[in-house]
Amino acid sequence: MEKDTQDIDRYLLDEMTSAEKSEFEERLEHDPELRRMLEAQSSVHEMQQDDASLHIDSVHTGNTKGNTAIPHSFLGSDYTILVIIATALMAMVLYFIIKN
Predict the structure, then answer these.
(1) Cβ-Cβ contacts under 8 Å for 18 (sequence gap 6 or more)
(2) How confident is the model at residue 23 (pLDDT cuts 50, 70, 90)?
(3) In this predicted model, which residue has the larger pLDDT, 73 or 97?
(4) Helix (H, G, I), strand (E, B) or coil at 63
(5) φ, ψ for residue 69 (rounded to 5)?
């Protein structure tokens, strides 16, 4: 299972060779558990990318408090706590998907 998680990360980050990617996609076609793990981990990756995108936008606009489209109550440490909680919840969902 540890290898599956590492393979999924490498797949989502596009770090696999074309041969590895083909082999992994073949496994996905025949392994519903691996597909569920990919879906759950993909959600976590998307949340992390959204968080990184917000920080990059703040640097480019010179706004160190974050994107002005987001209410101030969600900026800074409050926003970080929400991201940590969301990531922990996704990890728990992934755990229960794998366990069942």
Answers:
(1) none
(2) very high
(3) 97
(4) coil
(5) -75, -10
In the block, residue with structure tokens 């770090």: 15
Distance of alpha carbon 35 from alpha carbon 55, whole angstroms: 30
Instruction: Dig out the tokens for 22 from the structure.
Output: 């083909």
CB 74 within 8 A of CB 82: yes
Q: Looking at residue 73, what DSSP letter applies? A: G
How many angstroms separate the CA atoms of 84 and 20, rounded? 31
Distance CA 11, CA 79 (A): 28
Q: Tell me the pTM.
A: 0.50
Q: What is the dihedral angle through the alpha carbons of 15, 18, 20, 25, rounded to the nearest 10 degrees?
A: 100
Torsion over CA: 79, 80, 84, 85 (sign): negative
Residues for the chain: how many in total?
100
Per-residue pLDDT tens for 51-86? 655 555 554 555 555 445 555 444 555 667 777 788
Token pair, residue 5, equals 């998680």
